[in-house]
Amino acid sequence: MRRSARPGHVAAMAEAPRVTFVIAGVQKAGTTALFDYLAEMGDVALPRLKETHFFDDETRDWARPDYGDYHALFDDPAGRPCGEATPIYLYWPNSLERICAYNPAMRVVVLLRDPVERAWSHWRMEYARGAETRPFAWCIRQGRMRLFEAGPRSGPPNAPGNAPWGVHREFSYVERGFYGEQLERLLGLFPRDQVLVLRAEALRDDPAATLAAVRRFLRLPPAKAPAARAVHVGREMDYGSKLTAEDAAFLKGLYARDQARLAELTARSFA
What confidence category does residue 15 fall into, taking pLDDT thresholds of 50, 70 and 90? Predict the structure, then answer.
């Protein structure tokens, strides 16, 4: 039986929630690979596109949400666990709260990757598709000020250097790596047993074991793992930038306090 929304959340919808799990993050950490692996398993129901971007859609009336077009993205689950993968959910303001209001019993999968490598991979993706034109070194320093120029929330210009600033869909190379802050918000909404935190390296190096953990989390019986794969490998081109030792040290310094918080919450760290 569906539990009612928690105090302060949007009232629960009239019909029982159909989606029972989400892969909520993080971007550039193997969420596409995990989605593809699950798609090969017939006992999991997934939408017809990987990223629905439903709960981060700021054009919706979240005071009176209509879930009809969200459910239309899915075929009949027929009793199977039904889920989706939109990796911005962990980062985007209010997405997790909206998910909890939709289904407080939602099971949430989070894949984490070394935040320095994640930032570099994110920048390469945006640069390759033309959304970014500035060098990586500038983007992770002066470029963070761009996050005050757009988005539903922002911070003061003198925000501490080791704290997340503002939000932005494309230019959030540094901000998306503050995993401790994001996991703290997630675990404030959902019980620990409804959250599964994995490392991207584990999915890459031992997909069978990682998928077995995901299946246990979704209360599914053991199954043969699909063949290993690599997806969304970075495009080979002249990026005009390199991930230097100086850039890596700068980012590690920014993330140090947050990494300590992550270790407290999950016993995992990239420090």
Answer: low
pLDDT digits (tens, 9 = 90+) for 157-167: 334 445 566 79
For 128, counting Cβ atoms within 10 Å of its Cβ (0-12 exposed, 13-18 middle, 19+ buried), the class is middle
What beta strand segments (E) does the chain contain? 21-25, 83-85, 107-112, 195-199
Query: How far apart are alpha carbons 178 and 160 in whole angstroms?
Result: 13
Fold of 21-266: Rossmann fold (3.40.50)
Calpha distance 10→17 (Å, rounded): 14
Run of H or E including 205: helix 200-205
Question: What average pLDDT does the chain have?
Answer: 88
The predicted model scores a pTM of 0.88
- The Cα–Cα gap between 220 and 120 comes to 35
**Model confidence band, residue 232 (pLDDT cutoffs 50, 70, 90):** low
Domain boundaries, the chain: 21-266
Share of residues in the chain with pLDDT > 90 (%): 77
Residue 107: beta bridge partners?
A: 21
97 to 72, 136, 270: CA distances (angstroms): 22, 32, 27
93: which 2 tokens? 């303001």
Per-residue CA distances from 42 to 75, 78, 112 (Å): 13, 11, 26
| Interatomic CA distance for residues 140 and 146, integer angstroms | 11
* DSSP label at residue 50: S
